[in-house]
Write a structure and sequence with these properties.
The chain is of the alpha/beta class and 351 residues long. It has twelve helices and 18 strands. The strands form five sheets. Strands 1, 2, 3, 6, 7, 15 and 16 form a seven-stranded mixed beta sheet that branches. Strand 17 and strand 18 form a beta hairpin. Helix 4 packs parallel to helix 6 and helix 9 crosses helix 11.
């Protein structure tokens, strides 16, 4: 009893010393109530099969454009791109001609190639202008990137609550700079959102930011931006309390947020819980319409050397693109984890 009492006091005085035990207890509670996933989020995977059939990554932008056109024609509600187009496409005939002229002094003519096939970036921008595609970008927390030339899509926010909370401390994580897409893509796209993911102190991913701040403006995550585009929602309601952010309202859905604008994720289990469709099958028209019709699609990659893997309470190699799908699934099913103020005491008793 004395030892348990000592641990409890230690939790109150120096909680960081017992964070590891708290995380394990939280994971235990989470595993006992996973819930069932919906069928709305779908992941289009640029997998080993796709690379074997269509060549190494990065693909020419005209192929990405073809993939997006086919997904849109199959009836996708919205498409989130878990990738970045920060530089010109070097596989474009326009770029090849420029590089050969610079390096070797040789002028290539390509007279037989139609004008609309010479610039892959223009081809992708034209596809993005067709609507329903949300670009991804990454916020940075050190100075140095040329964020002045970035075009981002801010979040339209209505606020309800205590102004004092915002004056006392920042409500959201503040980003100093950003690694973004070419401006021509951002101008053509229907929206954009950051794909930053922040693990806990023990390296395990349990929450993700839904909103971040950059230059006194709020921006949505890729998951939130893609969901808003699918639902046709143009703005959100943000409710704040004395201790910071309380919740985010998306239409009639109240999404509980942590103090800095994050969402505790209710993972459904190990990776590949949601439907995965190979990009190669989409490009070769081998995907039935019902697989994509009315779905929210995230395009990412699981190929070796390219995939972004995150450790979660259920899986040490959880695909990063599936995190976005899980967030959308939690919001659509209103299946949230709320951590009240007395949760720390309960976790201490549990430990």
């Amino acid at each position: 009893i004395l030892f348990s009492l000592l641990l409890f006091i230690l939790n109150l005085v120096k909680p960081t010393l017992s964070d590891f035990l708290h995380y394990r207890f939280y994971d235990l509670l989470l595993s006992a109530n996973r819930g069932e996933s919906s069928s709305v989020p779908v992941i289009v995977d640029i997998d080993e099969k796709s690379l074997k059939r269509y060549g190494q990554w990065p693909w020419p932008r005209y192929r990405i454009a073809t993939l997006l056109d086919k997904l849109r024609n199959l009836g996708a509600l919205s498409i989130g791109l878990d990738m970045l187009f920060a530089e010109e496409d070097r596989a474009s005939i326009h770029s090849i001609k420029k590089e050969v002229s610079r390096d070797f002094g040789v002028e290539l003519n390509f007279r037989e190639v139609p004008a609309n096939l010479r610039d892959n970036d223009q081809r992708l921008a034209k596809t993005l202008a067709g609507g329903s595609v949300v670009l991804g970008y990454q916020f940075l927390f050190e100075e140095g990137s040329d964020s002045e030339n970035c075009l981002l899509h801010p979040l339209r926010v209505n606020k309800l609550g205590h102004d004092k909370a915002e004056r006392d401390s920042p409500l959201f994580i503040h980003a100093r700079s950003v690694s973004c897409n070419l401006k021509m893509f951002s101008q053509a796209a229907a929206g954009s959102g950051f794909f930053n993911i922040s693990p806990e102190a023990d390296g395990i991913l349990r929450r993700v930011p839904l909103i971040m701040e950059h230059k006194d403006t709020l921006y949505p995550s890729l998951a939130l931006g893609t969901l808003m585009k699918a639902l046709g929602v143009k703005d959100i309601l943000l409710k704040t309390g004395k201790n910071g952010v309380n919740s985010l309202y998306l239409n009639e859905t109240a999404i509980p947020l942590t103090s800095n604008g994050g969402l505790l994720i209710r993972f459904r289990g190990k990776g590949r819980t949601f439907d995965y469709v190979s990009a190669a099958d989409v490009l070769s028209d081998r995907v039935p319409g019902e697989k994509i019709q009315g779905k929210i699609v995230f395009v990412g990659t699981s190929a070796s050397g390219l995939k972004e893997l995150k450790p979660t309470p259920f899986d040490p190699v959880f695909p990063g693109v599936e995190v976005h799908a899980t967030v959308v699934d939690n919001i659509l099913k209103k299946d949230f984890i709320s951590r009240p103020r007395w949760a720390a005491g309960l976790e201490s008793l549990g430990v």
